[in-house]
Design brief:
- This protein is mainly beta.
- It folds into two domains: 120 residues, no CATH class; 281 residues, Single-stranded right-handed beta-helix, Pectin lyase-like (Pectate Lyase C-like, 3 Solenoid), CATH 2.160.20.
- It has four helices and 27 strands.
Length: 419
């Protein structure tokens, strides 16, 4: 009776009545309902909720679909909450202990309603697929550099492996989230301040093998010790990643790449260390921006911050690192260490290590002091930098001399690039 009633309503109204669509994020599949036990593969991101309101958590093995797992206050009133996972999640043992005939009837009713209304409306699900396909097409040509030798290659995945999100994915303390090479899309993608991250890494968390598409929001936030391995940002939003850990913590970024930035690629707001290795980046459209910036005017802004960049290729950035060699409140200066970095920019000089005076929010602007070499703040020499000129010498990468000799005696090689 319930089945016939739903189908009849769908036909009469001429709209999609997929009861489960609003109870799971677009691109997700329901695996069990409130109070039932589900089983998922290791490190699977699970959404819990209904009516387009969800709480996300990375889970492994069996769990109860409810507040006992997702926390008090996460249940959405007004109906049955559901637990769902990405339709492309590779889980070999997704199961529900709830196999009652009532659940089966409900699933059949939902399917019938979708089928009966498919001609009348594209529905939220097909809309999501169209959006994902558009995003995949929009980002397929943005990655201009190959992975650093020894790192996994970037793979341009299609719409089937694009995951639309409605909220940030929080990776709990001490756990690892493996994106399986899928593309994740959240919101915006512009330079607006205050956007949420696509991934929020808690203390000791790790993120691996993920692509962040052109709806990049504020990329990745790390609130303590964390690691990011083989993550590719196809089109930067506010920033690629932000290190927010306290003194003594380290955010490690190894392999992967970031593209199409206009302002900052890596932002450092905490007081710990940001260590970047075997990374590639290219702001080929804007031909500007900073690869790394120690915050110039954060609330309670203070140092020291430490950044280490090794074995990396960075194209079309005006500044590689911007660090605070002094703070207006007298806190210790930052320190940047660069080793074996390859740089290309054919439309103006690169400031490899630019120094600033950091200030606290509301007390003026952070002022630039100039580029430095081989100082307590800028731990690098010309031997640590390789400038890339165009084959034949028609275009050259300029390096700002700062406090060193002009021209800076960096290593030079020639390559062909269509800039």
């Amino acid at each position: 009776m319930q089945f016939k009633h739903l189908a009849l309503l769908a036909l009469m109204a001429g709209v999609a009545l997929d009861a489960s669509a609003a109870n799971r994020p677009a691109g997700y599949t329901t695996i069990c309902t409130e109070g039932k036990t589900c089983t998922v593969a290791a490190n699977t991101m699970v959404a819990y909720g209904r009516s387009d309101q969800f709480t996300y958590k990375v889970l492994s093995g069996s769990f109860v679909c409810g507040e006992v797992t997702f926390g008090a206050g996460t249940k959405v009133a007004g109906g049955t909450n559901e637990c769902s996972i990405s339709s492309t999640a590779s889980s070999s043992s997704v199961a529900s202990s709830a196999k009652s005939s009532a659940a089966a009837s409900s699933a059949a009713a939902s399917s019938a309603a979708v089928a009966s209304s498919s001609k009348a409306s594209s529905s939220a699900v097909s809309s999501s697929k169209a959006s994902s396909a558009s995003s995949a097409a929009a980002t397929s040509a943005t990655v201009t550099l190959s992975a650093w030798p020894g790192c996994p290659a970037y793979v341009n995945v299609g719409a089937a492996d694009t995951v639309p999100l409605t909220a940030s994915i929080t990776v709990p303390a001490g756990t690892t989230y493996d994106g399986g090479g899928r593309r994740f899309q959240l919101s915006n993608g512009g330079q607006a301040e205050g956007q949420p991250p696509v991934f929020l890494l808690e203390e000791g968390a790790s993120l691996r093998n993920a692509v962040i598409g052109n709806l990049a929001a504020d990329g990745v936030h790390c609130v303590g010790n964390c690691s990011v391995y083989n993550v590719w940002w196809e089109d930067l939003g506010e920033d690629a990643a932000t290190a927010k850990g306290a003194s003594g913590t380290t955010m490690r970024v190894d392999c992967g790449g970031a593209f199409l930035g206009t302002d900052k690629t890596f932002q450092h707001n905490g007081q710990g260390t940001l260590h970047i290795t075997r990374f590639v980046a290219d702001n080929w459209k804007s031909k500007g921006g900073k690869f790394y910036r120690s915050c110039g005017d954060c609330t309670g802004n203070k140092g020291p911050r430490t950044v280490i960049i090794e074995n990396s290729r960075i194209h079309n950035h005006q500044t590689i690192v911007g660090v605070n060699s002094a703070y207006s409140n007298g806190s210790p200066a930052d320190k940047a260490t660069l080793r074996n970095v390859l740089l290309l920019r054919w439309n103006g000089e690169i400031e490899v290590c630019s120094t600033f005076t950091g200030v606290e929010k509301g007390s003026g602007s952070s002022s630039e002091k100039g580029a430095e070499w081989n100082t307590s703040t800028c731990n690098l020499t010309a031997a640590d930098v390789t400038a890339i000129d165009k084959t034949g010498g028609s275009k050259k990468t300029g390096i700002a001399p700062g406090n060193g000799p002009d021209p800076a005696p960096v290593n030079r090689i020639q390559e062909n690039w269509n800039y």
